Amino acid sequence: MLAPYRKGTDLTDRLYYHDSFLREFDAIVISCTPEGRRWKVILNKTAFYPTSGGQPHDLGTLGNAQVVEVVDAPHAVAGPDASNPGDPHRVVHYTTAEVPVGAVHGHIDWPRRIDHMQQHTAQHMLSAAFIELFGFDTVSFHLGKEISTIDLRAPSVVPRQLEQAERRTNEIIFEDRPVEIRFGTAEELAESGIRKKVEREGILRAIEIDGFDRQPCGGTHLARTGQAGLILLRKLERSRDHWRIEFVAGYRALAAARADYATLTQAATLLSCALADVPAGITKNIQDRRSKNTAIKRLEERLADLEARTLLRQYQEACNSAAGTDQAAKPRLIVTTPPDATPAYLALLAARLTAEKNVIALLLSRETGHVVAARSPELAQDIGTMLRESLKEFGGKGGGAKHFAQGSIPDPTQVDAFITHVKSHLTSS
């Protein structure tokens, strides 16, 4: 039989230890001191839960002041009491305004509190289920704003085990078993059977789920497992030496299921199929897209070959018509702005052009301002440095290797001016 509760060395009487469903309470403000833009408030008793054990703090009000953070702070004790086992603690409330010393009425943000109670109690059941079914210990717990996680110590975790643990946890929820608060020493708790051994001294608090789990814990919990509603396991991933499982319970599970259904319904509408046919519809669309992308890539390669030959021929014809000029020793500078060209196509066309000897290619998109520059392997120009410096003059960014570089100018209307600048740079160099 566990020992009855005896108040320990805490300087703040924690009302939530006995009644997690307490929404309002009256207390005495012992001190209120400014700390930056907030006020640090100490009460003789509180229903506010401080951040601890993976569970975030409560929110609410003290009088007319908003409680924005609650922490568990050790308090140094002088004199004979300093030899007592463990450090005395007090709960510190940080508020947005001053709370005068004296009587005060506290109010807990109930939607936040019940949400935390659902997630935390569900975590106890889920951890117990993994122990019962597979012998996997929970090494850590985190209660987040949208999802919660447990880290398991296990050689591996597979989807089948997730399904079994989820089902077992929901069985305990649907059976609506009582959740009791127990107090006792570490030895008394160990004798009564607890999931996790603790080394602390003094009177400890434990949460007992009838016939299923008993675990030392100072957090806020439900009165019956049925109040958790439902638990859904959402994700499994490797986290260092452990396996991390994301889950939602209670109202979060309801919201997640509703969001999943809305997403599935929208997908079915877009695919013009039934909900059950969405996976098959997505698979078909992916296959069709891959087939089309392959065909488009082949067409782009053929187009790049044709366009490269056309540009080189046009350059040669222009040179032949330029009487009295010696073009033989000069690199062939090919400048073009293909309409509606993607960055990938510009790079492909540049590769086709510079596969020929003695070519410098400058390709631009008038729609996006994307720029690709390249040269034939035997030329010596540092294209990467040239393009990077030129782009800076126009507020753009980019660069690359000596033989190939790309980037973009923020204002596509500056394409012609950029071309003139690059030509001048290449001529002077």
Radius of gyration: 35 Å
Number of helices: 8
Envelope shape? elongated
CATH H-tier superfamily of the largest domain: Threonyl-trna Synthetase, Chain A, domain 2
Number of domains: 3
Beta content:
25-35%
CATH structural fold name of the largest domain? Threonyl-tRNA Synthetase, Chain A, domain 2
Report mean pLDDT, rounded to a whole number. Answer: 89
Quick one: CATH class of the largest domain?
Alpha Beta
Description:
The protein is an alpha+beta fold. The protein folds into 3 domains: 13-108, Elongation Factor Tu (Ef-tu), domain 3; 113-271, 2-Layer Sandwich (Threonyl-tRNA Synthetase, Chain A, domain 2); 301-320 and 330-428, Roll (Diaminopimelate Epimerase, Chain A, domain 1). 35% of the residues lie in helices and 28% in strands. It has 8 helices and 20 strands. The chain has helices at 110-134, 159-174, 186-192, 251-271, 278-321, 343-354, 383-393, 415-428, and strands at residues 13-14, 24-35, 38-43, 45-46, 60-62, 65-74, 89-95, 102-108, 137-143, 148-153, 179-184, 204-209, 213-216, 231-239, 242-249, 332-336, 359-364, 370-375, 397-400, 404-408. A 6-stranded antiparallel barrel has the order 2-3-7-6-5-8. The longest helix is centred in the C-terminal third of the chain and has 44 residues, at 278-321. 30% of the residues are buried.
